[in-house]
Design brief:
Layout (H helix, E strand, L loop, with lengths): L1 E9 L3 H12 L4 E5 L8 H4 L2 H16 L5 H31 L4 E12 L2 E6 L4 E11 L3 E3 L13 E2 L1 H4 L8 E5 L3 H13 L2 E5 L11 H13 L2 E4 L2 E9 L2 E8 L6 E5 L1 E4 L3 E3 L32 E3 L10 H16 L14 E3 L5 E5 L2 H6 L4 E7 L4 H6 L5 E7 L5 E7 L3 H13 L4 H5 L11 H5 L5 E3 L1
Length: 465
Amino acid sequence: MKNKFNAIIIGFGKGGKTLAGDLANRGKKVALIERSSEMYGGTCINQACIPTKVLENQSSMIRRENLNDFNEKAIKYKESIDKKEKLIAKLRDANYNKLNCNENITIFTGQGSFVNENTVEVKTIDGETIRLEGEKIFINTGAKPNIPDIKGIENSKIVYTNETLMKLKKLPKKLTIIGAGYIGLEFAVIYGSFGSEVTVINTKSNILPREDNDDSEEVVNILKKRNVSFLNDVSIVEIKEENQSAKLIYKKNNEEEQRELCSDIILVATGRKANTEGLGLEKANIELDNRGFIKVNEVLETTTKNIWALGDINGGPQFTYISLDDYRIIINQLFGDKTRKTKDRKNIPNSLFLDPAFSRVGLNIKEAKEKGYNVLVAKMATEAIPRAKQIGRTDGFIKIVIDKDSEKVLGATMICEDSSEIIHLIQLAIDMELKYTYLRDRIYAHPTMTEALNDILSPSMIKEV
């Protein structure tokens, strides 16, 4: 059986599903392939952004209840996992139904693999093999957990990834996390707030090494309040299962002496790699870059004509909103004025949800100085903000980086309540090349976190560094 389509999209993630709907609404016949019925809607809905933020919110509420009994916390943890599962199931169904009811979209559930440059074979979960022919093909298969080469790490009884850990309904009393990146830190806060004793294993000397020292130090201080401790400068020797528990054997600071850390389970959070398994990319002459991601140009075309790659699979920043912007670039190239390119992107904001969130956009002090700017910094502790005092969320600070010569805003770091919202205002100021005084002199609603900009950017708060 062979079917012809205007477009074949492999992967049901943010970019792929949005592209499918747009093309179908333009009258194009679209085939959308998803390997698993548990992944309709993509990684964000099912395994990342949505479920982790549900758990972060639930764990934050539980931490503020100041429960002393671990069993009570464990019950609430299980309830939170159940709540998370119900939500993502609802979102998954909504995503499937939204596209499945479009008469121009046909959804195939199974493994898609290239036969040649315009043909994809699907081995469905029902055991069928179907060949699809497409005028244009779009790859949106995302990324998956990167598992380092550590002896014993394959033991799934005691070793979890972020994807499998969120299915665990029993709260671990002790959790070891290998990796101090964004994924590891978010899970550290979640499980520490639920009541687990969390230890983060870091191969470097400190966390978030690209950030300013005061930023990373504040994050560490906040995590320590969340029942999280750190082991830095660690090299891991082996993972063992003993008495149904996990033993991590490691060395510190390149010493010969081996040490041991015991916990109930271990989470591996050492980044993500391209999800290319089973795609048969070589049959379509699609090349990979030196990191194993699909090689694309600035308009997301692969090395094969009429095949594009969008989302995490193309090696760009691994954020859902970047996948959405990939869709915009492709639509602009296909139907617009062909001006949108990846190089247009600048000042991409990001937030690490640590209760409070650590949000960043533009340049930090370190980066601004490296670029040759004469730097001014406006910084204020969150506890000085009336709204923060009112709601009892006073951890962290807000820091804004300014070019002394032009007075333009260069960047900001915000570790405070609602920073994931306020950061977009700073992004807009940077993009518009506004002077910091514009933000300082706006009239903001009261009481809000945003109105802190009036005070942070006052002359007395701005220092040269």
